[in-house]
Amino acid sequence: MGVFISYAEADRGAADRLRKGLAAAGCGPWMAPASMQGRQDFPTEIAEAICDSDYFAILCSPDASKSDWVFRELMHAVANGKSIVPIWIADFPTTGRLRLMVGPIDWIDARSGVTQDVVSIAAKRLGKPLTGRVVTTLNLKGGVGKTTLTANL
Q1: How far is CA 31 from CA 131, 135, 142, in A?
Q2: How far apart are CA 88 and CA 42, in angstroms?
């Protein structure tokens, strides 16, 4: 699968426009609930879709910054070494956990709407070889606990 699209429910319209545009560009988007297989256990289906994706596109907005679910999806993507592609659809607070995670990453500006130009930029970014956030977990000296190393390439 190509790209998992994470969004807050209030941003579903923008997410759906992105999904349709990326599908037309051949980027293989996955977005709940449109891509779900109808299983009862939707958290497992979403977690598996994130793991199966090459990229994790996150629509950033005030609603996304308040969403525990969006943050959990982002943490799962980071923990599984996915290349994160933030798409800012609205300004959101300069502080907070979502801004902390995606603020330093090269983002796509969609604050004027998810237009064909935005979809084209996203499709080009998603068509590049996988570079970006790489995460690995090491168990140092056989001790209890893990240390997570993160690097932007």
Answers
A1: 22, 23, 39
A2: 26
User: Which of 3, 10, 101, 4 is CA-nearest to residue 46?
Assistant: 4
- pLDDT at position 137 is 37
DSSP 84: E
d(CA 68, CA 147): 24
Task: Measure the CA–CA gap between 63 and 45, rounded to whole angstroms.
Answer: 23
- Scan for tokens 């995670």, then name that residue: 101
Counting as low any pLDDT under 50, the low residues of the chain are 129-153
Q: Whole-model pTM?
A: 0.77
Q: Is 90 exposed, middle or buried (0-12, 13-18, 19+ CB in 10 A)?
A: middle
How far is 105 from 58, CA to CA, in rounded Å? Answer: 12
Of the candidates 29, 34, 85, the one whose C-alpha atom is nearest the C-alpha of residue 52 is: 29
Give CA–CA dist 116/123, Å, rounded.
10
